[in-house]
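Ticket #4471: structure output looks truncated?

Reporter: J.K.
Steps to reproduce: submitted the chain below (364 residues) through the standard prediction queue, then opened the result file.
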Amino acid sequence: MSTQSLEPHTQQLIEQYRSLLPVYTKMAEVIPEKLRGFFGEAGLIVAALEHRVKTEESLVGKLNLKGGKYQSIFDITDIVGLRVITFYIDDVDKVASVMERLFEIDWENSVDKRKAHEADSFGYLSLHYICRIPESAYYDPEHPELNKIRFEVQMRTLLQHAWANMNHDTGYKSGVDIPKVYVRNLSRLAGLLEIADDEFSRIRRELADYRRHVKQLVASGNLSEVPLDGDSFRSYLAIHPFDPLNRRIASLNQAEIQDVDLSIFLTVFKALGFETLGDIDKMIKEFSDAAYQIACFQLGLTDIDILASSLAPQNLCTAYILKKGGGRLGLKMMLDALNGVSESNAAMADFLLEQSKDLPFMNQ
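Returned output as attached by the reporter:
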């Protein structure tokens, strides 16, 4: 782009921009890399991390509008820009905390647009930080200007990002006023998105509280008070409730126990009508001897020396189903849940039924 037709001061700023373009490009590589590392250390998952360097054409447009306010190219703070998009509104402040630890923040020029709205208005919400990279975070002797140049970071949620894009496409981007009815509808939509953002965060907090409560109940042994669901079952498996029976079975052949994922048994326990973790715990206490008897028959004449940790819960379920009169259909249901629906499960159910019919627990 020729600078001949530009106002002299604008022309000077554009020439400075061109000379610093390699530095801007380097910043656009370094800053996202640093942020990803810090997010990983903080265990913070973000929906997107975007970055861009303002094009010369875009910069000329900006300078034509308000170039007089900038004495030098270093006064322009958004040539390098980043956008961090989070899933939850609570995470915006966590991202901001990472920024504050990693970069120097120009507080005077940073803006929290979340606090700028009137009580009865809705619209664009975002947290904008103007930052600088301190030498302690990153220094490149080939580009010392990198630690002098300020850059902008926008932080907002996915829903706030959606609103910003919609508002940009339907509002000021067109350059004309839009009828009040559309403004009102956009404001209504903005209000709904704000409510949705708050609700998603509230639900996440309540789920976190529920999970902590479940872990406390499991740890204290109050299993009858814990509803059986995915979260509670994971907490239950963390205390290894089937290990004693697995070790007892493994001692038959001095076998090694290979850990496998037991979460699939949740489907089986649900199908058996179990409603709390206490129901599973009760089954373990009442049917461990029966499950052991099944294992004795299965392994007694073999030299198997590696057993999956799923053997104990599967034998417990087998004993429970048979003792409760579930028969062949109940066994096939269990096998379908564990192995996927297959005709071979019917044959295996028949085998288990035949295998177990003369065992002592069936005659008690």
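Triage note (M.O.): checked the attachment and the full token line is present. The first helix runs from residue 8 to 42.
Status: closed, working as intended.
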